[in-house]
């Protein structure tokens, strides 16, 4: 049996799902220096690494593919056990690296904000001594159809 309804116009994939496209990942500015905040607190000590500059040849970039986000960061002078990844509010990935070696690299800190499709509960990372590679899988939103059934 043929349908008597006129054909529907083609919609973008995100519109057919009823969702706007996810926001692209954004590398947020490094947090401000905390030295003034620490001095106002009643802490008996001041952190010595939070104000240390990152190495001049360090950088970070985000690549996007249909199934995942790839974060690549150059962190020369840091050791694997001094790098921390943390998810904040299910949308922000916090990357922190510290070096305590004499004449070492210092402190590197960046936050990357992701859209609703990033699955920060399944992040994978590897570090080869200079390059940190982080894979953030992308979720596929469930497809819900509210149209007429076709036979």
UniProtKB/TrEMBL annotation:
Tree of life domain: Eukaryota
Note down the stretches annotated as region Disordered: 1-38
| Biased composition annotated in UniProt, kind: Pro residues | 1-10, 19-33
Q: Sorted alphabetically, which InterPro entries does this protein's record hold? A: HSP20-like_chaperone
Protein name, per record? SHSP domain-containing protein
What organism is this sequence from? Russula ochroleuca
């Amino acid at each position: 049996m043929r349908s008597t309804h006129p054909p529907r116009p083609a919609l973008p994939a995100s519109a057919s799902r009823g969702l706007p496209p996810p926001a692209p990942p954004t590398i947020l500015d490094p947090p401000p220096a905390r030295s003034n905040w620490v001095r106002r607190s009643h802490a008996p000590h001041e952190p010595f690494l939070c104000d240390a500059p990152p190495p001049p040849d360090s950088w970070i970039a985000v690549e996007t593919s249909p199934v995942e986000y790839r974060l690549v960061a150059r962190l020369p002078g840091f050791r694997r056990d001094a790098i921390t990844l943390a998810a904040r509010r299910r949308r922000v990935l916090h990357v922190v690296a510290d070096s305590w070696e004499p004449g070492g690299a210092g402190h590197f800190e960046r936050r990357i904000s992701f859209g609703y499709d990033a699955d920060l509960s399944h992040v994978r990372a590897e570090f080869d001594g200079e390059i940190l590679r982080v894979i953030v899988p992308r979720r596929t939103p469930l497809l819900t159809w509210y149209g007429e059934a076709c036979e």
